Amino acid sequence: MELEEDALVAAAPPPSSWPGPSRRRHILQFLLHACKRLDPRPIVKYSALDFFAGRFLPALPRKMGYCGARSGRAVRSWLLEPLRDSNLELFALVAVWIASKIHDVRPLSVKSLKALGDRIISDQHFTCRDFADAELVFMEVVEHNIGSSSIAFIYLEELLIHFREISKLGDLLDLDVCMDFLDILYETEDTSLLFNSPCSLAASTLVAAYVISVPKQTWEFPILPWVRFATSYDEEEIMKIVLTILLHVLKVDEIKERDKEDFDVRCLLRTCDV
User: Fold this and answer.
1) Confidence band (pLDDT; 50, 70, 90) for 207?
2) How large is the C-alpha radius of gyration of the chain?
């Protein structure tokens, strides 16, 4: 048995390459599509994304021995060996199920998730029992770490509510735009690392949405000093993340076209200092 496990470890891809950018993007797009079909509340959606992309996927290589040695108790299941895309899609739906159980008075039923899975998981049909088994495996992989009080969406929603209380410009900021930014950032592995600092990401997302949504001629509100005051984060640190968001979400040509001139988000610093 030890020889078999050693062989699996030797044949496994290195952790830095797993699950790979294209495979990860596919699975995250699947999860976002599933949320669009299920239409859960935003807190459920972003809790599920955090559980799956921020905890489950990063923990899998350790739990399956991809790092050369298993971390903690080994997780063994037919759902993990082999780990097909259809199985990952099942775990993505399970993440939504767990999040719904936490946040909804009437959680999504396993039957509704199975029905959706039958329609959008192409390679395999899973039973309700499979969903229950997958939930147990999911919880074991993340070591029952399903707290959701520190996710970017919660901080973002609180900041937006506060901003609308002190400035009429807050009415120009659409929460859907902010959520679109979060969705795109989740899809790419490099930018998904921003979710490791949810509060600074929330503040930066708000500023990015301000740049996109509020007409430039009305940029009289000192958004950066206010964000610094509200979150205690340095303006330069926020600006770096804002630039990352804008350059990732919008193509450079689209950014320039927005103002018909060379666009430099650092102009916010000058505007806010006036």
Assistant:
1) very high
2) 21
